[in-house]
């Protein structure tokens, strides 16, 4: 049990030292900024047409759509 704890601490220290979580956060943010769509997250099919009302998508609207699509996907299981 102690070996697992030691490895976990070692891994956590590595992630902190090399700022891996910050890098992943940045990359995810950049991806969503430069390719903003549910398709980027795999929540839309390739042939699905997204409605564009000509206005920017707010964070709240984006989160609503992500949650709605996620629920639709999970309801199939």
3D architecture notes:
With 77 residues, the protein is mainly alpha-helical. Helices cover 62% and strands 0% of the residues. It has three helices and no strands. The radius of gyration is 18 Å and the shape is elongated. The mean pLDDT is 82.
SSE topology sketch:
Elements: H1 2-17, H2 20-34, H3 59-75
Number of strands: 0
Tertiary shape: elongated
Provide the gyration radius in Å.
18 Å
Parts with pLDDT < 50 across at least 5 consecutive residues: none
How large is the count of helical segments?
Answer: 3
**Which percent band covers the strand fraction?**
under 5%
What would the average pLDDT be, to the nearest integer?
Answer: 82
Summarize the biggest pleated sheet.
none
* SSE-based structural type: mainly alpha
Helix content range: 55-70%
Give the ordered list of helices and strands.
Answer: HHH
Distance between the termini: 35 Å
Domain EFCAB10 C-terminal EF-hand: 13-71
Organism: Phocoena sinus
Protein name: Pseudouridine synthase 7
InterPro entries: DD_EFCAB10, EF_EFCAB10_C, EFC10
């Amino acid at each position: 049990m102690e070996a697992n704890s030691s490895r976990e601490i070692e891994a956590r220290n590595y992630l902190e030292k090399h700022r891996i979580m910050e890098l992943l956060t940045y990359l995810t943010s950049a991806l969503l900024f430069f390719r903003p769509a549910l398709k980027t997250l795999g929540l839309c099919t390739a042939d699905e047409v997204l409605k564009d009302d000509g206005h920017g998508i707010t964070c709240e609207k984006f989160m609503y759509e992500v949650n709605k699509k996620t629920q639709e996907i999970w309801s199939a299981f």
